[in-house]
Amino acid sequence: MSVESRVSSSQPKNQLPRVFGLFDVTSIVIGGIIGSGIFLVPYNIAQNIQSPLLMLAVWVVGGFLSFLGALSLAELGAAMPEAGGIYVYLREAYGSFISFLFGWTLFLVIDSGAIATLAVAFSTNFPSFMNMSPLVSKLVAVIFIIFLAAVNYFGARQGGNLQNLLTVIKIAGIAGICAAVFLSGKGNLSNFVTPGPGKFSFDLLSSFGVALIATFWAYKGWESASYSAGEVKNPEKNLPLGILIGLFGVIVIYLLANLAYLYVLPVSAMTASKDGVAANAMKIAIGPIGAYIISIIILFSVLGAANQNMLCSPRVYFAMARDKLFFKSIARVHPKYKTPYVSIIAISLWSIVLSLSGTFQQLFTYVIFGEWIFFGLTIAAVFILRRKRPDLPRPYKTWGYPFAPAIFILAALAISVNSLIKQFFSSMAGLGIILLGVPAYVYWKKREKG
Predict the structure, then answer these.
(1) For the chain, how big is the Rg over CA atoms in Å?
(2) Which of 76, 121, 343, 400 has CB 3.0 to 4.6 Å from 317, enough for a Cys bridge?
């Protein structure tokens, strides 16, 4: 039975309306990827690599590897433009067990952890404007999540409009930072090449790898547009185009931002910029007010990244529930607003719990480890489905096949193994949550048969 016929026979009459065009998909990708990473991660990279050329290379390689994944994801999305995205691709390639574990992990760790992490980042950055006690800071994080849940509850179009607005604001903000820095005349072109990369060594390669992992946090989010494929107009065209245009745009933005930072901050100054490379760069360019401007841009940027998760990830749990592999109520579509409103409420509540119980670094580790295991499996699905489902319509086929997906799979494996080695206990906690999905899967499969 084809994917289309099987899905159509199982879907209820109430469908999620197709309201997103190419601009919306591109905005979801750009606005979701650009969070706090581009403002904070350069410091972490500078701690590991003291050569500006290698620092820029890290951003290029991180973007390139992410782009290889997006090339393959675009094929899957164009072939199966359904609500749930990666969940659907894993289901068709490996069966319901693996796809359930992905949805389970997305709910408990990956996207809920991302929303919680961004909420914590938002509340952490807020003291730039006012003094807050730890209790008030946690309250700000909770309000942050509730606000996004409310917007997306009342319609996908409302969530999309907010995403478009925040994406425009953050792009304009980063463009403003670059313009202010380059026009200040306070930089030095020698910062782009000094000090040099030095001789190759395994220590240098190891440091490059550690820095590369940091960029993957900054590039996270290119996959999420696939979750909302069931609400994209002309998805065979708009979904792959939006993913690829959006990610390419982010790579360009990130490189320009890092060039701006390096123009006014030599690497030695970056390693001392614990409070933020972007903030220090703006202080040099326009004075103390620059730090406040950066804080405002970060707030909007983090809000947009979290909104992408709130807009997209509930569609995965919605798809799981329609397959009878999650709570039945999560498959409900709001009769008026046409949103998976129970799913939105569920992910919001769990994200609030995580925001109140974990630190930024702990949540960050959980997200990266759990995510890249399934990223590798998803891109491997391109190989599997070409053999298993040669009849599946493919309006777009992966550029660079089979090399592009193969390289990405190897990178995903390396990242997962490195996370397990470097952050063993935190990564094992994430793995434990994945394995908790096994008895949960058995429970829902029994209910499905019953």
Answers:
(1) 21
(2) 343
Identify the CA nearest to 264 among candidates 324, 392, 177: 177
- In whole angstroms, how far apart are CA 115 and each of 230, 309, 367? 22, 7, 10
Q: What is the pLDDT of residues 166-197, one digit of tens each?
A: 999 999 999 999 999 999 989 899 999 988 88
**Average confidence score pLDDT of the chain:** 88
* Residue 12 CB partners (closer than 8 Å, separation 6+): 322, 331, 333
Q: Are 144 and 303 in contact (CB under 8 A)?
A: yes
Alpha-carbon distance of 300 to 307, in angstroms, equals 10
What is the structure's pLDDT at 168?
95
120: Cα separation from own chain's centroid: 16
Q: How far apart are CA 378 and CA 102, in angstroms?
A: 10
CB within 8 A of 172, min separation 6: which ones?
none
Q: Which of 165, 152, 161 is nearest to 338 (CA)?
A: 152
Mean pLDDT of all residues in 418-443: 83
Q: Token digits for 203?
A: 């220590």
Could you tell me the pLDDT band of residue 73, with boundaries at 50, 70 and 90?
Answer: very high
Q: Which of 426, 361, 412 is nearest to 44 (CA)?
A: 361
Q: What is the pLDDT of residue 2?
A: 41
Residue range 35-44: mean pLDDT, rounded: 85
Q: Cα angle at 346 between 342 and 347, to 5 degrees?
A: 120
| Among candidate residues 391, 415, 416, 402, the one with its CA nearest the CA of residue 71 | 402
Tokens of 189: 């072109």
Phi, psi of 20 (to 5 degrees): -100, 130
Residue 10's pLDDT is what? 42
Question: How is residue 248 written in tokens?
Answer: 């390419």
The percent of residues in the chain predicted with pLDDT above 90, rounded, is 62
Question: Which domains are delineated in the chain?
Answer: 18-449 (1.20.1740.10)
Q: Which two tokens stand for residue 235?
A: 């998805």
Q: pLDDT band for 220, please (50, 70, 90 cuts).
A: confident
- What is the end-to-end Cα distance of the chain in Å, rounded? 23
Within 8 A by CB and 6+ apart from 264, the residues are: 181, 184, 186, 187, 188, 191, 281, 284, 285
